[in-house]
Structure formats: C-alpha cells, structure tokens
Give the backbone structure.
Amino acid sequence: MPEVPLDFPRQWFECADPSDPDQRIRADLTWLTSRWTCIFGRGCPGIYKSSPEAGCCTLGAHFSDKEDRKRTERWVAKLDASTWQRHRTGTKKGWTVKEDGAWKTRVVAGACIFHNDPDFEGGYGCALHHLAQREGISFIETKPEVCWQVPMRRSYENIEHPDETAKTVVVISEFDRGSWGPGGHDLDWYCSNNTEAHIAAEPVYISARDELVALIGAEGYELVARACREVEQMRAATGLTIAPHPADPK
Ligand code: SF4
C-alpha cells in the first residue's frame, strides 16, 4: 500500500515572524524535510481515474481573492492557440466560472481549462506553467495561488495569552487528503502521503523555496530552513530522527 495513513506523528517548529511582530510562524518539519515531489507526467495517475492524465487539475482552481484572479488574467492574455489548447473556447466562452459564489477556472473536457492534453504540441499540462518557463520566471507569478501551493498548505490560527496579548499563527504544513475537504478522502489517488511521490533527491524546504518565501517571507523562510537543516544534521550525526515522514524512503 503506497499511501500511508494520515495520523502519523509530526515534528513542529515555531518562532516569531521576523516580518510581523503580531505573528508567529509554525512549520511542519516532518513535511518540509520529506522527499515529496510532484510526479505530474512521470507517474501521477491523477486524483480521479476518469482523468488519469490531468493530475490534480481535474476540478479547476478557485481563486484566493480578486487580486489572484486579476493577476492570472494578465498572464492569460499572453497565451495563444499555440500554447493553450483551449484558447478558442476560453476566449469565446470565458475561462472562469462562479461556483457557490466563488470564482474559479472553468473545467473543460474533464480538467481545468488551462490543462493541455499529452499530445498537444504546445506542451502537456498547465499552459500557465509552461508560460512561466518560457518567460524565465517562477510559476508562482503566472498560476492561481492554489495551483502552486498544493500540496503545501498555509492556514492561520489565533492564540490568546493569559496576559491578554494575542497573536496570529501562520501554519505551514502538508495539504493532505483532509485539507481537500470531505471529498478528499474519496480521491482515487493522491500524492502528499504516498511513497510513489516521495522520491525527490532534495527535501521539500529546498525544492519549494520560492513557494515558501512567497508564503512566509524571506526572513521567515531562513528561520524555518535553518530548523530543517538542524533536523537533517541531527539525523545524519546520530541516526535518530523525530517523526520522519512515513512515506519517505527508509
Ligand atoms: S501535486 Fe500530486 S496529484 Fe497534483 S499533479 Fe503533482 S503528483 Fe499529481
């Protein structure tokens, strides 16, 4: 069984947020030092058997806010029929839709409208991802936020101290099946806790540096990365580790 049960122990690191005195950062070191990597196009069977080549792009992407939608819109304007398979449909009929009061990308032919089929000459997969590669920039710039975050999860908690001070805690962790909502447990396949996707040469805190900097800032990232390095050094020096990710190679 390549997918490990979700309730495994985790090691957490918490520190003051250097960029905001009213915030703290709490980071899941079990996830950030894990060897997860996206295996889209190299083994990902898709979250639904009905769209095996669409990865987790099956449902379309909800925008986090108006700015997220507007930023994406500016990049969509740079796509054409040679780089976006559904260009004609998207420009004629629109590429967004409102669902339960929230804007998201439309689903066409079983996947997000920006998903190009494997045989499309302009490149298989997300047209906005390929656009970023052509422009020589991070895909953080071109894709809706949720698309570059999954399976990284940023959430917020509020804590109140007995001295009546309060802080917001920015929590960085794994976007596991439970994070998808009740339907997450019905996905046909998922990667974050699956040994088939824990095959990277480098840990998540290095491979996802750009994403983490966007989520917690450069100074916050340095503190979290230092904690990750210390965990790795302890493992290397002693062979002991606290709560390693169970989907990682043994
Ligand atoms: S994030 Fe996971 S489910 Fe989505 S495409 Fe990558 S491997 Fe597949």
